[in-house]
Amino acid sequence: MKAALSQLEVVRPRDLAHAVSLLHESAGAERLTPLAGGTDLFVYLNAGTLTDRRYLDLSPLSELRAIRPAKGGVRIGALATFDAIARHAACARWPMLPQAARVIGAAQIQNRATLGGNVANASPAGDSLPVLLAYDAVVHAASVRGEREIAFGKLYTGYRRLALEPDELIVAVTLPDRPGRARELFRKVGTRAAQSISKVVFAGALRVDRGGVVDHVRLAWGSVAPVTLRSSAAESALLGARPSPDAAAAVREALARDIAPIDDIRSDAAYRLAVAQAVLAQFLRLAHADFRAR
Ligand SMILES: Cc1cc2nc3c(=O)[nH]c(=O)nc-3n(C[C@H](O)[C@H](O)[C@H](O)COP(=O)(O)OP(=O)(O)OC[C@H]3O[C@@H](n4cnc5c(N)ncnc54)[C@H](O)[C@@H]3O)c2cc1C
Question: Which one, of 219, 217, 285, 231, lies nearest residue 261 by Cα?
Answer without folding.
Answer: 231
